[in-house]
Each structure stands twice: as C-alpha cells, then as structure tokens.
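User: I'm new to structure prediction. If I give you an amino acid sequence, what do you actually give back? Let's try with this one:
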Amino acid sequence: MPDQAELSTRAAPESPEVIEGGTVERVTDLPFEERRHRAKTARTLAYLLVGILAATIGLQYGLTSWLIFRGRSDGVVALDKLFNAVLPILSGLVGGAATYYFTKERS
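Assistant: Good question. You get back a string of structure tokens that encode the predicted 3D arrangement of the chain. For your 107 residues, that looks like this:
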C-alpha cells in the first residue's frame, strides 16, 4: 500500500503548460453561389429521373419476359396495367426536368 508521501506527489498537478491556439478571426458566412447550386441540383435531378425511367422500363421488360417464360400470362396483364399507369408520370417528370436543364439561362 502506498504511503502518504507517494499519494501527495501523485495527486499534485504539474504546472500547466500554455498551449498557443493561434489567432482568433472574425467568423464569416461560408461562400454560397446560388447559380452554381441551382445548376448542380438541376443536373442531378435530370440524371436521376432519366435513370429511374430507364430502370423502370428495363425492369418492366425483364419481368414481362420472365413471366412469359414461366407461363403466367395473368401476371403479364397485371404488370402491363401497372406500367401503363407509371410510364406517363415518369415521362412527364423526365420531360420537365430535361427541359428545365437544357433551357435554363446560360451566361
């Protein structure tokens, strides 16, 4: 068991060293370029919607082929109805996004 002298030397903190933290400058807002941000967002949305449309078409044709080979014609009819409901919505979104992306102000 340590004696009292050892405990007092362990508990006594050493003199604190001064740590230089550098200079303090005024906090300013981060630079934000609205035109650049809007252009990046428009491009991302256009590519994303075109990708979703392509994936939907590929999935529909793939599932239709799979159902035909499996001999489930009732499933093909249900899938066609679903695709006929989804395709106009997606094509409208893609058309709007592509139109905005290609016709926005350029300067």
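You can read the tokens as a compact description of the fold. Here is one thing that stands out. The longest helix spans residues 34-70.
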